[in-house]
Amino acid sequence: MASDRTSAGDPARTLALLWGSGPAPRHGPGRGLRVEVIVDVATALADREGLGAVSMRRVAQRLRVSPMTLYTYVPGKAELLDLMLDAAYRRLPKEDTTGRPWRERLTALADANRALYLAHPWASAVSTLRPPLGPGLMAKYEHELAALNGLGLSDLEMDDALTYLLSFVQASARAASDARATRVESAMSDEQWWAANAPLLSQVLDADTYPLAVRVGSAAGAAQGSAHDPEHAYRFGLQRLLDGLAALIDRP
Amino acid sequence: MASDRTSAGDPARTLALLWGSGPAPRHGPGRGLRVEVIVDVATALADREGLGAVSMRRVAQRLRVSPMTLYTYVPGKAELLDLMLDAAYRRLPKEDTTGRPWRERLTALADANRALYLAHPWASAVSTLRPPLGPGLMAKYEHELAALNGLGLSDLEMDDALTYLLSFVQASARAASDARATRVESAMSDEQWWAANAPLLSQVLDADTYPLAVRVGSAAGAAQGSAHDPEHAYRFGLQRLLDGLAALIDRP
DNA sequence: CGGCTACTTCGTACACAGTACGACGTACAG
DNA sequence: CTGTACGTCGTACTGTGTACGAAGTAGCCG
After folding, report:
1. Average pLDDT value for chain A
2. Which nucleotide has its C1' atom closest to residue B28's CA?
3. Residue A129: which pLDDT band, with cuts at 50, 70 and 90?
4. CB A170: neighbour CB atoms within 10 A?
5. pLDDT for B40-71, tens place per residue?
6. CA distances in angstroms from A198 to A125, A195, A212, B140, listed in the order given
7. Residue B14 and residue A197: Cα distance in Å, rounded?
8. How far is the CA of A28 from the C1' of D30 (A)?
9. CB-based contact B31:A153 (threshold 8 Å)
10. How buried is residue A237: exposed, middle or buried, by Cβ count under 10 Å (0-12/13-18/19+)?
């Protein structure tokens, strides 16, 4: 799939769901389920088996209910993903870092988001453009802006800086999550993969045609565990990111 | 969808395809197609209608051929995506920036990648972890390392810096591409969407509970075109990124 | 209390996906 | 000329999201 999309249906209905302000039904039989239960089951499924395992049929099966029953609670799958994401945002621990130096505050913020994606790898794959404007996201946004407040940034710069930081963490998480998915899917460790490909690669990658690529590529491969190391890339990137913001924040 | 994955099948077969070193078949009827034609048709389809429109059936239809015929040329869809990506990398113009200041060189590099994702929005959605090690990628990698060479970075730092930069550009492109997809899919402009949601949002987002979020959010919304502005985020991010690398490159 | 009506549940069905399998025909090696 | 390797493709399987309509339930109104 190209990235899973969100928010396909009626925006008002979705918003009402996010904020739990659905009008209670007046007629008909009692509802056997609650939206939060559906969201929890879908989240558990995604946590254990990945976003690809989340289908309406499988969620319904876990709930011992017919697939179509879910549609009385949720307009569609896209909205279900929105709800999962907002609920995850809501659960994010929000450490108070008031008074600490700004680098520490932003590092804590980045680490918290990284932890979120570590606990819920699927979250990095759900699109966050025009994100689910639910209580979870709003609380998260408010808390994160607090770490950027009082640093001499304009409102616009605060939003820009936060977007930049969150985008970096999400990209890192996506890379890590993709790497793990590839490993699982191909049932092949990085070492196995390189071993299988080494013979052909050595024929084709001669150091005359690609001098830098061969030199740097093998240096990077040797330093890390042969392929890409997400943890290392995260630490490197976060330092550059903070240095880059320093030029904005600590300006004379 | 979680991001489309790549490289599922036999690695050796995929590598041979990438480097065009398939052994010529000795028996049987002549082949009516060529891999490059399939790749071109699939790319054209993805360019015009998005990655979601690329199905084996639709590609085959464009080629006036049965879907299963494609499988004699390509092991599967994942490998087809790999080939599309490597071909796109190969077409990337590689401007010689030797002698120019490093900020200019890296900006040119980032802009070239951004242009790639602008021309081929689907490329940002195809996973690039354990990427297709074809001639296109290798030429790209070699060319991009050249822009980082001679700046006093270690081999590992060069790879780290490049990964950091490319990851930023890809994340920006993904955001832009997701935004456009959402707009198309919901058949709703940003203004329409905000207009539809404003009544409920104003009820729920009071400035007492979310003071910073409301203030900064509306400032950001007013400055940009009401929602997220990918172009603005790219320019902001690139400046921070270069400032961050400056702390590494221009160190005493 | 009877009936209307809104409501939940769910069986069936449709259009689409990737691709496994096997039948059929072709063209080269011997 | 024959055998065999190979390209082509019809059919089919599993799985997706979800539209539609039938069936049954529970509250409201007369």
Report:
1. 90
2. D6
3. low
4. 22
5. 999 999 999 999 999 999 999 999 999 999 99
6. 31, 5, 18, 20
7. 10
8. 20
9. no
10. buried
